[in-house]
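Example for tutorial group B:
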C-alpha cells in the first residue's frame, strides 16, 4: 500500500522564482493569500520591477503563476 503524496502549491514570480522562501503552500487558497501578502511589499513603489521591466501592481497577478508541486 503506497502513501498518497500531499499536493502543495507554489507561486512563481514573473522572473521565474518562488515567492515564498520558507516553502510551499498547503492549498491553492493559501497560495493566493501568500501572493497578496507578497504583492503588498511593492505598494510603496507602485510596481514590481522584473528583469523584463516594470509591472504595474494591478497586472502583477497576470505575470505570476500558481503551480502544483
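The residue assignment follows.
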Amino acid at each position: 500500500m503506497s502513501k498518497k503524496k500531499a499536493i502543495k502549491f507554489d507561486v512563481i514570480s514573473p522572473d521565474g522564482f518562488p515567492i515564498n522562501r520558507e516553502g510551499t503552500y498547503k492549498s491553492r487558497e493559501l497560495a493566493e493569500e501568500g501572493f497578496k501578502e507578497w504583492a503588498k511589499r511593492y505598494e510603496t513603489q507602485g510596481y514590481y520591477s522584473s528583469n523584463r521591466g516594470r509591472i504595474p501592481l494591478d497586472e502583477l497577478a497576470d505575470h505570476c503563476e500558481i503551480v502544483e508541486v
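The chain has two helices and four strands. Compare this with the pattern of hydrophobic and polar residues in the output above.
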